[in-house]
Write the structure tokens for this entry.
Amino acid sequence: MYFVFKGDDLAVIFAVVFGFLWGAAIFNMDRYIVSSINKSASTNKQLLQATPRILLAIMIGMVISRPIELKIFDKEIKERLKVSYLNGQRAKIDTLNEAFEKKYQVEFGRLNQQKATRDSLEKGIKADRQKLNFEIFGNKTSETSGVMGYGPYAKRKEAEIKQRMAELDSLKANINKSENFVDKRKEFDGLFTEKLYTKKQLDSLSDIAGFADRNWALGQLKFNVDGTRDNNTAIAVTFIGLLFIFFECLPVFVKLMSARGPYDYAIADGDEVSIHHSKKDKDFHVEVADNIHETRVDSESSKKKEIIKGKAYRDLEKYDWDGE
């Protein structure tokens, strides 16, 4: 129960109080069910009597073993929760970005086209500069004269480069305006505030994780990150649960396997005595009822006769004899 109230200032006190109540309830229930198994009955009937307790033991074992498993695999659970939180935050950011790009699809299309044009211009300017250098230094190519010096071709090429540079500067200014617009819209839509968790934040989130998240992470420990089954962890978790189930079922199994002892005989004798007393009390009340039956009939009959006679006398007194 401590893990249920973990994080509260009075967690230990709550754990002790509720643990005591839980233990007392289970103890009294065990004591009643186990002691009520009739060892003088047939094996099938004993198993039938023990079935509710066995089913209850399975549920109790599962309930008790879960907090223990959470504590034993606490480190692995925290690591799995960190991965889950990080993946969830990354998916959230990706979803927001996709929705934003879809919302401003036209603006992004124009911006991408401008960037493609910029890249093409930069490549063209770089190639023209190389041709200009070849012309000035007299390197012979299919597009240069091979004559060293700053001639008409070099001047024309330099003018083209300046014109393209002016176009590139204008295009970069437009790109900056578009990017500033997109950044402002991102800030307005809250995309800049959504960031991946830091290590400190992940540690904090895993420490304050609730029972549902920790229980989910414990179930995920049975699988590796790539989705394959981790048999070692799965077997460990399963056997911890089976161990507590076995402990809960042990009193019933011991009672079923043990022979009749003095306590069983005393219980059987007490039951027989109680049954005998009950039968004798029944016979007593039946015999008394039979003996007083005739007296009750005679008394009731005499009473009814007197009542009828009294009514008849009153009717005679009221009768008008002169009228006849």
